[in-house]
Amino acid sequence: MKIQTILWKELWLRKSRMVSGLLAITLGIAVIVGIKSVASVSERAVAIKLDNLGANILVLPQAASVDDYYTADIDAPTFPEDYVERVATSMLPGVDNLSPKLTRRVRVGDAPVILTGILPANELASKPIWQSAGLDGAELAAACGASPEVSKPPAYLDERLQRKAIDSLAPAEVLVGSVVAQRLNLTDGSKVTIAGREFTTARVLPETGTIDDDRIYAHLHVVQQLLGIGPQVSAIEIMGCCSAISDGLLGKLRNILPDTRITTIGQIVNTQIETNRLMAKISLILLVIIFLVGAISIANYMWANVEERKREIGTLLTLGATRGSVYRLFLAKAIILGVLGGVGGYLLGTLSALILGPELAGLAVQPVPIYFLWSLLIAVAIAVLGSWYPTYRATRLDPASILQEI
Amino acid sequence: MFTLQKVTKSYASRRGVVHALQDVSLTIEAGSFVTVTGPSGSGKTTLLLTLGGLIRPTSGQVMFHGTDLVSLDERRLAAYRNQSVGFVLQSFNLIPYLSAYENVMVPMSLGRNNGNGDHGRRAKDLLDRLGLADRMDHLPRELSVGQQQRVAMARALGNDPQVILADEPTGNLDPALAAEILGILGDLNAREGRTVIMVTHSPEAARIGTQRVHLDAGCCSAAGAVPLNH
User: Fold this and answer.
1) Yes or no, beta carbons of B102 and A406 under 8 Å apart
2) What value of ipTM does the predicted structure carry?
3) Of A13, A16, A317, A318, which to mutate for an interface test with B (greatest number of B Cβ within 10 Å)?
């Protein structure tokens, strides 16, 4: 008989105790995995909602006035369009979308309007209100179509930017803000002449309650051509991830574009940062609590198991076992239970999150494979620690008292 | 075989220092049957566990065949317990989830030659010799107290030790079973030449010793060889 036989026999012949121990570990880990899985999804959901607040960073020429974030691009000095590429190729983390624009006041007949050149797909991404009004990408493409003349997208080196800069607004089409449309009596399909060139109103945009309602949007490259400005833009709107902003994104952008003025919409950014901080704090508190509850339940079982086997430890020492071999015997059991409980806990926790996440939190939860590794590590570590101390104590107690304890 | 010189074992407790053994000096010859008596708390079990290498004395020497047990490191002391002595305890201390056969094999599996294939046969022989051939696969709870004590004795003999240390082996048994166990211990001493050191409360059991030790408050008040015909 090998000494390991003692380990297997104890596990096998004390099935009910093994099951209760396994259950303690499995449930502890399942609670941790389940709540963490739902929490991570809810964090992502909150992040998406925060993104929907829209662009939050504005890049302007150094000489531009920033009295009003929303009108700062109007008649501002210009800077080269390839600044967009410079930011995109820098691969700065936290830059979610780049929306270059060129804005000038022009006259349509006798009426003054604001003409803004945009890259439609990028603009759409930075204006969630357009999306919520049903002006999604597919609709835009259908309404605007591809431009044979200016449809060649700018030769951005960065693949990510190429993907974002879908050039889908036809050269002879415009999107018209609601106030301008009313003032000029424009509806979908109406003709409008700007700087001597006729355009078709592809779509009257939904009311936003901002200066955007006074704008007429045409393709950036068409506006550059129309105004004879060349490949220049007056502003770049950036959707920056709020945690990246708090990690110094603005400073990094200033390093890349030193001759520009970079500003943020303080209200949006602060909301994003504060909400993210709050979520992170709540998540951490929750994790600490469930970790402690799970850990205590596992350690409690392992402790009780060693305590009830103290006489056995005394007997083994009497029969010639060293303290080391007693340790190995008990810690091997902890490792076995930890591994089984870790696997079971991960499966149970993930399954619970998959079922209960959509039911209770309205969130579609996906399994997180990395949690499997964490489950194993945490379960084994807690089981070993929960066994180690009482075993350490038991092997150092007076054998006489252990042997005589009943 | 054993020579104890001024052995003292003290414990710190909430009420102060307790001396379980005080300046105990004693010589035990190989092949003797030593009975240790004394009131509860007199240090009998402490003396037995000191001889068994389970308790390190606070001071003094415990010589076994010229080797001071106090000087041995943990591994050597464990090997000494495993190879040279066999323990028989009052509450048997069988491992509850192992069969009688497996319990007897525990000390063998803890020993240096734990891969030896003869262990199984030796365990069967020992159980057979103690009248437990038909109880080998029984768990301790399925055995009577007398049978459990015989399994414990078979286990003590697992590695063929020179010394049997018995801590009140008849304390939990009725007189008939007690006589049976004492008979087995007597045989191990008289027929096989093993040294038996037995702690007992029973004056009758103490009488079978060839050497009697009486402890009182940790002090060895009487020790000496008793004529075999006593």
Assistant:
1) no
2) 0.87
3) A318
